[in-house]
Amino acid sequence: MKISNETKVGALTAVAITLLILGFNFLKGKTILQTGNYLHAKYKDTKKVMVSNPVFINGFQVGAVSDIENEDETLSNIVVTIKLKGDYQIPANSIAAINSNPLGTPSIEITLGDDKKFLQPGDTLRTVESAGILSGVMEKITPVADQLKTTIHTLDSVMKNINTIFDPTTKNNLQSVIANVNKTTASLVASSASLQEMMNQQTGTIAQSMKNVNSFTKNLSNNNDKITRSLESVEKATGNFAQADISGSVEQLKQAIRNLNDVVAKMNSTDGSLGKLINDQSLYNNLNNTIRSANILVDDLRMHPKRYVSISVFGKKDKSGPLMAPLADSAKTSN
After folding, report:
1. Which of 81, 104, 130 represents a domain boundary (last residue)?
2. Residue 132 gets which letter from DSSP?
3. Residue 316 has pLDDT above 60, yes or no
4. How are beta strands 95-99 and 107-111 bridged, if at all?
């Protein structure tokens, strides 16, 4: 049997429409066959939750909203079907709350419980109504606004009482006081500026002084070992000095000085040989004459060796007269 082109086009169009519907539902998280792990949650207000909105546990997306339908005609309870991506072990006392986000997409947050039993596919989660961000903010702002109203009312009453108490004379006096306070404040500002300028002038000196102190303390820290050794040496020397026989040493020094004084006294007197040697002029003259005679003898021996030694090597005996005075070079050497 031959199929006409119109039949083929109609069949392809039906298949395309079917695939389009299935793909659209798939993108929205809905499937024709209810396969997978599904949970349900009942809310009084879904807060604009839509199909394919995410479902989180501890910030991790475990699934998405697959379907939303009313339980009855009164719309008192709305059933939200959640399709999980896997077989998660969710305690039976876990709670699902809707997080409304005015700047984004609403989501469902499942807070895990501590029950030992776990939810099975098709079970219904416990729910709680979440106040939302704006509702929470408004709940906190409302008491503050009430207190602000009370404060403004009290302030208004106080101002009325002040206006009834102050007469024109009191107001003028008050203005004078405020003017004086302004003058005093200006004087304080000028004094503060002068004080600040003085402090700025001293800042450089103080900073340099602190720098010098830091440098000094750093040098002390670097030479700590040397200072410790020096102090130990001083302590050791002090101990040795304390243990030394100072009085005995002083007494010995005094005795040595007395002996030296005795020696000096004997040297100054003419009783001993050393005193005579130092103080007797004749002994000096005799020694000088003896040295002069020895020089003459040596010079004569050097100039006339034949007179004293008769050897054939020197020829005949020298019969010239002896020297009566040392030669010039010997005399210069002796002097």
Report:
1. 130
2. -
3. no
4. antiparallel
Q: Which residues contact 69 (CB under 8 A, 6 or more apart)?
A: 78, 79, 81
The amino acid that residue 162 corresponds to is I
In a domain? residue 44: yes
Read off the amino acid at residue 244: A
- The full 3-state SS of 140-206, as one line of letters, equals HHHHHHHHHHHHHHHHHHHHHHHHHHCCHHHHHHHHHHHHHHHHHHHHHHHHHHHHHHHHHHHHHHH
* Bridge partner residues of 126 (DSSP): 95
The answer to whether residues 40 and 126 belong to one domain is: yes
The domain containing residue 3 runs over which residues?
Answer: 1-33
Residue 213 placed within a domain: no
Question: What are the tens digits of pLDDT across the range 81-108?
Answer: 999 988 899 999 999 999 887 777 899 9
Q: Check pLDDT > 60 for residue 160.
A: yes
| Prediction pTM value | 0.36
Phi, psi of 248 (to 5 degrees): -65, -40
166 within some domain: yes
Question: Looking at the predicted structure, is the pLDDT value of residue 290 above 90?
Answer: no
Q: Are residues 111 and 171 in the same domain?
A: no
43, 102: one domain: yes
